[in-house]
## 1
Amino acid sequence: MFNKVLIANRGEIALRVHRACHELGISTVAIHSTADETAMHVRLADESVCIGPPPPQESYLNIPSIVAACEISGADAVHPGYGFLAENAKFADILEAHGISFIGPEADHIRLMGDKINAKAAVERAGIPVVPGSAGAILDIDDGKRVAADIGYPVLVKAAAGGGGRGMKVAKTEEDFESAFETARLESKTAFGDDSVYLEKYLERPRHIEIQILADTHGNVVHLGERDCSLQRRHQKVWEEAPSPVLTPDERTSIGEICTQAVRELGYRGVGTIEFLYENGEFYFIEMNTRIQVEHPISEMITGIDLLREQIIAGGGYKLTLKQDDIKISGHSIECRINAEHPETFVPSPGQINRFHTPGGMGVRVDSAVYSGYRIPPYYDSLIGKLIIHAPTRDQALKRLDRALKEFVIEGVDTTIPLFSRLLHEEDIRSGNYHIHWLENFLAGQ
Ligand code: MV4
C-alpha cells in the first residue's frame, strides 16, 4: 500500500481523503495556497507544503508546484479530490512520468470521457443506452439540419468539450437551428478552445440519475446503485438523494448490471459515475465522471461502503474484496449542499464564521472543513459543508433532515440552510415528484 499520499485539494474533500488515508495507515501531505494557511486540511495533515498564491491557477492548478511538493515530501501517490486537477489527463500523465501514482483512472480513460463525442461512442459500443443523436461531430449547418430533421425537433446542440452546461443550445424548430448551432460553437470555442459540437434529441423534463461504480485492475467491478441529482441550479447540484424516489429494484439491477459490464469492457479502474437522463422509464447516458464526486457520501450511507477507502485500495493496484452480492441497499440518504450564499439571491457570502455548531445524533453526518472563527476566503467555491442524512425510509429521512437543519448554527455569513427548510414544505419534494428543471422553476416562481 502507499506510504504517503499527497492530497491535491482543499476543503471538505481534502479532509475526507485524509481520514480514509489515516484509517489505512497512510500518512498525508497537504498542499495549500497562502490564503489557506489556517485551513483545517492543513492542520489535520501530517505535513504541509505551501504551493503558491491564492488564485487557483497559481496554486491548486499549478502542476509544476504540485509535482515539486510530491518530490519534497516523498509522497508516492496523489489524490486529486474533485474539481481542480481531478479530471486533468495531462496531470495524470505527468505524475506517472515522475513515478508517482495518480489515485484515479488511467490518463487515457480521463481523456476519453472528457471528449463527450468519443465518450458517448465508447459507452454505446459497451452496451450503455445513449440519447438518440448525431453519430459524431456536426461540421456545417446543412449537415446539421439534415441530422436534426432525422432526430426530430427539439434538438440540443452540445459541445464535445462540454460539461457544466456551457456550449449547449436548444433548437425547438428548424428556424432556430442556425442560431443554436452558431451560438453553441462560439460559446464552446470561447470556453474550451474547441468548437466541435454534436446533436441530441432534447429531453424536456427528465431526471438526472447517476450510477456509482467501483473497479479494480483485476476485472472486479461493482455498482453501488444510483443517486438522484435532479435538484440543481445553474448546473450546480443542491440536493441529492439515494435511492432515487422513482426507480424500482428491477430497474436498479438492470441499469447497474449494464454499467458494471461496460466498465469491465472499458478496462476502467477506480471510482466512476455514469450519468443518465431518465424519462418515461428509459435511461439515456449523458456523461461519465472519472473522479470521486461531491455527493458520494449518500452512496456510502445506503451501502455501508467507504468509497474513498476502496478508491485508494483500487488505485494502489490491490484487489477489491467486495462482490456485487455483498452490496445491499439499506434505507434512504439525502445530502444538502450548504453554501456560503444568500438563500434567495445565491450571492456568495465569504467572510468569518463566528459560530459553527453542527447537528448530530443518529443518521446525521456533516462533511465540512470549517470551524468557529474560520474565515472563508473569496477565491474558491462557496461550499461550507454537506449535511448528509440516513434513515430507514425516505419519510423518516425527510423528518430527520428537518430536525438537523433546525440544529445547525452558522453565524457570520449567509447560508443556503433556509432554502432547504423551504424545500421540505413543498409537496413535490415530499413526494419525490421533481425533474431537472423543478428547482429553477420553483425559484423563478418565488
Ligand atoms: C441534456 C438535456 C436534455 N436533453 N441532453 C446539462 C449539462 C450536461 N451535463 C447535460 N445537460 C443536459 N443534457 C439532452 N439530450 C438537459 C440537460 C440539462 C440538465 C441535465 C442534468 C441536470 C440538470 C440539467 C439542467 C439543464 C439541462
## 2
Amino acid sequence: MIARVAFPIAVPGLYDYHVPAGFRQYMAPGIPVRVPLRNRVVWGVVVSLAQRSEFPDLKDIVEVKTTHWTDTDRSLIRLYEWMAGYYHCGLGRIFRPLVRKGVVDMHPKTKTVFMSTGAAFDAGLTKKQAEAAMRLRSIDTPKTKDQLREQFGVSGHMVSALVKKGVLSQSQEQVVRRPGEILQEAFEENVTLTAEQRCAVERIGAFLGKPSKPFLLYGITGSGKTHVYIELARACLQRGAGVIILVPEISLTPQTIQRFRGALGDVIAVVHSRMSDGERRDSMEELVSGRKRVAIGVRSVVLAPMENVGLIVVDEEHDHSYKQDDCDPRYHARDVAVMRGRYQNAVVVLGSATPSFESYYNALSGKYEMIKLRQRFGIAALPTVEIVDMNMEHRRGNWTILSAFLRRRMEDTLAGGRQIILLLNRRGFSVTLICKNCGTTYTCPNCSVHLVYHRVDSLLKCHQCGYSEPAPTVCPTCRGEQIKYAGTGIQKAEEYLREAFPAARIMRMDQDSTRGKGRHVSILGAFARHEADILLGTQMVAKGLNFPGVKLVGVLQADIGLHFPDFRASEKTFQLLTQVAGRAGRKDNLGEVVVQTYMPREPGIVAAQRHDFEGFYEKEIDARRTLGYPPFGKLVRIIVLGEAETVVRGYARSVSQAIEKAGKGHLTVLGPAPSVLARINKVYRYSMLIKSQSPTVLQSVMQRVHRGTQSLPSGVKLIIDVDPLDML
Ligand code: ADP
Ligand code: ZN
C-alpha cells in the first residue's frame, strides 16, 4: 500500500510513502503521518492511497496519528483540493491547521476519577474504612479526589486505601479544555418568531437535506437574523446533521455564542483564533467524534473536519476578516463555505445587513436565493442619521473633534441617563508628530509609513511592523522644541472627552486597550451593565452587540479610509457606518446617529444616512461594471517581495510581461508598481493587479505563475492573492 502525503511546510508537491503492514488499518485520507523528508522526520497528511507508485525505493511511514481525523471523508478532501487549485497553494498548506506542531503532538488531558465498585466489603476493613465505604455507596457518577473530600468528607489517603481494598475503582476520564473567555453562561431568550422570520426559516428549512442554492439572508440590523440561524440549526440537528456557524470575531460577539447555547444546549464547540493548542485539539476532537454537533468559530472553522454537515451559516458575510490575507491559503471563508455546501450537500446561509456586492449580485442574478428581513424587531424604526459637515464647523471656528451639534446631542443623552457609542477608526494618540519649525515628520526605518504617536507610553510606534522608539522632545533635525501632534487618534479623543464631559464615565476600546486575554469581553460586559456612559472605540464597537441602553451613536470622522486607493473604499465606509448605526436604539428606544465628516456628499455616507443599501448598490455597481471590477471581472493580485529593490522590481516586471503574453486579449495587468505599503519590515513590495473577464484563462495563467515560484531569484518571494480584498 502506498500513501500520497502532503506537507504543510514549504514543499508544494505530493510525496509517496510505503505503508508498513501494521499501519494499514488506519490509513485514510486526512490522517496525519510522520515520515522522513529530506533529512528530517516531519508531519504530513495522507491525501490519497494507491496500489503502486511511479517512484522506486519508497520510504516507510514512521508514525500514524489515529486519535483524531480518522474519519475525514472524501468530500472534505475534495474541498481541500479545490482550495489548493483555486487559491494556487500547495495542498499541504490547507492541512496546516490540522497538523500544526502543537495540535498533532497534543494529547488528551485526563484526570483520575473514582467510583464505588459495589463489592461487599465487610471483611478486612478497619472501622473508619467501613464507615467511609458506607458513605461512598451513594456516589452515582465518577468523582475526583477533591470532590470526594468536599462532598463525602473522605480524605485522599482514605480513597487510596479503599481502592486497594476493592471498594472503589479508579479510572481516567478525559478533561476537555475549553477556551475560558467565551465560557459564559447560556442566555435564554423568550422568542416567538415574527411572521417574516418564520417565513425565512420555513423557506430555507425546506431545503435541509436537499441539494440547493446558497441563500443570502439580507436583513437589516436588529431584524433577528440570529433567531433565524438558531431555528435552522435546531431543525438541522433534529435531522441528525451537524451545523457550522461562522462569525467574524468571537471576542467581539460573545453574546452570539451565549444565545446559541441558550437555545440549543450543550452541543456547541467553539473555535477561535486565541485558543491554545490544547483547547483547539479538544474542540476538533469533539467535533470529529460527533460529541459536539455545532461548530461556532472564525474563518478556519469552515474547514472543520465534520461529517454530515447539514447547515453552514456565515454571519456578517461581508466582513473582511473572512478573507485570510497574511498567509497561504489566501482563502475567503464565505466562498469556501459555498463550495463546502456543494460538496457536502449542506444548506448555506449568508447573512448580512450590508451584503458584499459580490453576494448581492449573485442573489440578483439567481446564483443565490435572496431572503429579506425588512423589519426591526420591537420598535420598527431605524435610527435617524444626521450628517455634520466638519468643514463648516471649522469655518465657524470650532477646531475640536466634536461639532456643536454632536456635543448637544451627547449632553442631552447623558442628561437622560442613556448611553453613547463613539466611533473613531484610528489607533494611537495622533497620526504622527511634526516639528513646527522645520516640518520634520517621523517614518518607520523599516516601513514606508508614518510612526504613530502613543501618549500613554510616550512612544512612536509603527502599526505595520511593531517598531517603536521614544517620542522626541527636541527635533533631531533643527533642535527646535516645538513638536506638535498632527491628526487625531483615539487616545487624543479620549483625553478631550474626559475634559469636555468630566462627569461622564468613559471607556476606550481599541487594539491597545484590549491586549490581555478576555479584555474585550470585560469591556463590553461592563458597558452592557451600564458601568460607563460613553464607549469610545475603533471599528471593534461596530460589531454585533446589543446594548439596550444605547441611544446615541456618534461617528467622529467618517471619511477615514476613503482616501485609500481601493475601489471598495466607499462600500467599506457604508458597511461600517451602517453597522455602527445599528447599535443605536434597540427594542424600546429610538436611536440617533450623528456622522461627522469632511465629505458630506460621499455616496457611501449619504446612503448610510438613508439606510439605502439598494440605492447605493445601484449607483456603485455601474462604476464596477465599467471598470471590470468584481463582481463583473475577476481579480488576482500578485505581490513580489524582497530586500533588494532592483531585483524585486526586475522580477515583478518580468512576471507581469509573462502574464500579459500568456493571457493576451483576456486580461489586463495594472502595474507592477510599489505597493501603497511600499516597504514593510525592510522588505520592498511591488504589486500588480490582474483583471480578467475569463476565469478559466486567469486560472491557467496563474497556475503557470505558481509553478514558476519553484524557481524564484534568490531573496525574492511571490504571493498570489486570488479575489483580493487588501489593496495596500
Ligand atoms: P440581527 O442579528 O439581525 O441584527 P438580532 O438577532 O441580534 O438581530 O436581534 C436583535 C434583537 O431583537 C435581539 O435582542 C433579539 O433578541 C431581539 N429579537 C429579534 N427577534 C425576536 C423575536 N422574534 N422575539 C424576541 N426577541 C427578538
Ligand atoms: Zn515599521
## 3
Amino acid sequence: MTVLVVGSVALDSVETPFGKAENVIGGSGTFFSASASHLSPVQLVGVVGDDYPMDQLEPLRKRGVDMAGLEQAKGESFRWRGRYRHDLNSAETLETRLGVFSHFSPKIPPQFRDAPFVFLANIDPRLQLDVLRQVQRPRLVACDTMNFWIESRRPDIVELIKHVDLITLNDGEARQLTDCSNLLKAARWIMERGPRMVIIKKGEHGAFLFKEKSIFFAPAYPLEDVFDPTGAGDSFAGGFMGYLARSGDLSDASFRRAVVYGSAMGSFAVEKFSVQRLLELTPTDITSRVADFRKLVAFEEEQAT
Ligand code: AMP
C-alpha cells in the first residue's frame, strides 16, 4: 500500500563536531521519502524554489517516489541551518528561511487523494490541516511537528491533533506542547485531545509508543559514530509508516514492529550527511539491523524453582 507524505523539501546547512555540509538536500518530506521508499511506494507533496538542485532528487524518483505533487515555484527554497554540539540529541536551529513555503498551498493530485496511509511531516500545521481536508478517509493518519511550530502555531497544532490517529514528537517537543514534564502524563494529555497513539522519541535513548492501554519501548541502535543526527526523526517516521503500509496490518504486534523499523531507519540516517546513507541501503542492511534490535533486547526470564 502507498504512503502519502507532505513535508518540507529543503536545503540544509549543518555543522556537527565531525564536519560541515552546506546546502545539501534535506527537509522532513525528503528524509521521510528516502526512508519509507525502502518499504512501500511513496507519494511526495511539497514545494521547492527555482534554485533547487532538482537533479539531486533523481535518486528518490528512481527509488519509486512519485513526485507528481512536488511543485517548483518562483523564489527561494526552504532553507534550514542547524548545529549540533557534543550532545547530538538536540539540534540548535541557527536559521529557518521559509522561502516558497510561506505562500505554499498544498494541492494533492487527484490520484493521491485515496492514499491509505498519510504522513503529515513537519511543516506549518495550517498546511497539515489543509492536506487533511483534501484526502479521503485514510486508514491511518500520522503527523509530526517541532519546537518552531509549537512556539508560533500552538492553537493550530491543538486543532490538527483532533484529526490524526498518531503523532510523533521528541521528548522536548512533547514537554513543550503539553507543559507536562513527565512523558507518560504528556502522552496522556495528547491522547485526551485526539490521537489514539503517541510516539515520543528520545534520540539515542530510544522511542516509546503510547496507546490507551499499553506502552511499547524500543532502544536506539547503539552506534559508535553518529555523524549527523539531522533527519533521524523523519527517517524514523518513514520506517514506521513504510512498514505499516507494506504489511497493511494495523494490529498491536504490527505497530510494535513498525517502531523497530522506524528505529532501524533512523539509525541509518545519522551515519552520513543528508540522505546519503539512506540512498545506499540494501534490503539486507535493513533486515539485518532489525534482527540486531531483537538480539539487543531479548532475554529470558529466570525459571521459577
Ligand atoms: P529531524 O528529523 O527532526 O532531524 O528533521 C530535520 C529536517 O527538518 C531538516 O532536513 C530540515 O530541513 C527540516 N526542518 C527544520 N526546521 C523545519 C521547519 N520549521 N519546518 C519544516 N521542516 C523543518
